[in-house]
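S.,

Sequence below, as promised.
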Amino acid sequence: MPKLSRAVSGELSTDETLRRAKKLTGSAAKALPSAIAKYLVDKVPIVRWLPTYSPKWLLNDIIAGITIGVLLIPQALAYAKIATISGEFGLMSSWLPPLLYAVMGTSKDLSSGPTSIMGLLTAEIIADFIQEGYKAQTIAGVVTFVVGIYSLLVGLLKLGFVLDFISIPVLSGFVSAAGITIMLGQIPALFGETGVRSGTSNILYDFFTKLPQTKWLTLVIGFSGILLVTLMQMAGKRWGKQYRVIWIISICRNAIVLVIFTSLSFGLNKDLKKPLFDVSNISKTSIKPPVLPSMALVQKVSSRCLTVFIAMALEHLAIAKSFGRRHGYTIDESQELVFLGVSNLFNGFFFTMPTGGAFSRTAVNSESGVKSPLGGIVTAGFVVLSIYFLTGALFWIPKATLSAIILTAVWQILIPVSTFYRYWRTSLPDFTASMISFWVTLFVSVEMGIAFAVSFSILHLLLRTAFARLTTATPATIGSMYPSAPKGTLPSDTQIFRFTQSMTFPNAARTKTALLTHVKIYSSGNESFAQEKDKSEMLWSEAGQNKETEKLRSRAKLAYQPIPLRYVILDLENVDYIDTTGLEALQEAKNELRAFAGKDLELRFVGLNDLVRTRFEMSGWRLIDAEEIVEDVDNEKRLMGEVSYEDADQVFSCVQHAVLVGRRSKY
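The prediction came back faster than expected:
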């Protein structure tokens, strides 16, 4: 029993995994108090930058805040229309995010609020659940609440890296398809058509079927709005930098068009029982007391909300990082997700739609000269005043005008065709993923578009891992592969294999097979070793394998007769990680190589990092540095029998040394 106890104690004391766990636990325990304090402060970034806030920045932040407020109101009304909820709920969605972002945001430029993408995704969920008797704004509020929970959890646990599984080409295809879907959904309203079903195919069919029913006054109002917005935008791009007034008009173009056509609508329709054209019917409202979302509905929509969260987070982070790079600062991605979680979670109590960063408003905020997130407080105040004092007048907004604002805004987020052509030129898998995302999103649904495209990307990544290439050096290529090794210095009894990526269970078996196959093609077995084997001892499969090897040699068209192999050099410089399956595969390869070439075959390693070497040693491999063998003191100890290198494999600092150092003697 004492023997067993000492053996167990000895094993535990030398166990590398336990040693690491103990070290990490000790360091984590010491750092925990300060880490908690830093973690809490990081959740409220205003605490860090407000003490250094310069009074000179205040005017810039006020101007930017008012500018975004003027831009946000018409967009909130338009995006509420996309989400199929009443316009006042779009305004209700818009006051809390900029207020919270001033306290929790890490980007000075970003403007948070309703977006067209969030409107589209919310509308899809509303369309599926409104038939169960729920009100549209109730469903939207629950979606916002659930999305907030997802974002808060991911942000607090710093799991934002999960979003990296959605590549830029997949996101490009999704954004373009979503933009086209939004635009198609607004075209019938622009022509005054009603009763048009959802879905790209249905919209196109119903639109052309109902085209003879076009309401021409509605069409004139809609296209006039598009023309005015476009002209003001073009004027801003051409003369905005020279004339501040033109720049302001361009920035406020949506609000100007809204005021013009709302006034026109009020003048034409105020005395009529039935308006001449469809109006928004926005009710006068105020900020209502918060209401707890229905838990039954939360359970029903929770799975559907994953897509909304992913799209919101990707759009928000992409915008924040883009403007951070432009202005030379770094955002905290996890903190941005925490902000999205808090703002949407609280917004969910007010029957609002999900909110996040918007590119157009962020660009305007940046151009307005904003100096800090403090401008969001001004924007929030402007929106609150609009909720209490302007919603009555917004009743008369023509629906065609809102459609015009949506069409001109969404047109700007469409990804250019040249981007997809660049994907085609640079990477066929990326182009394929973007096309899957685009077409499936356009004709099936956003959820399926993202799911299929991401699944394809992950499958492609797994296949690339499983079919990892094993590069071999030849006398002609060794100079280019390893500049320190002169061309033609590779002896014919030596083969070099360079691994191109980590060796794990998906590629371990294929890598081993590729290595052994190459050895058998370009080297002959040890004849003396083979002769020791009696035919009666030969395995049933060996004859077939020998014939297969001859076929492969014939196909390779060897210009020389293979000679016995003495050295196999494995360059693992690109191997950052190796798992148990990979270690087992290399052990099997070593055994088969020695069975083929003889017991004197040497396996030499190059480029082993500390982690990979430790894993080899923990799995039972004996590895020694080549320098240890050639030192005189070690030679003396070895001759005296104090040190034995039997069955040990050598590790070299570079390929040139592994090739040129002579074969060690038998011990």
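Confidence is low (pLDDT under 50) at residues 528-533, 638-642.

Coffee later?
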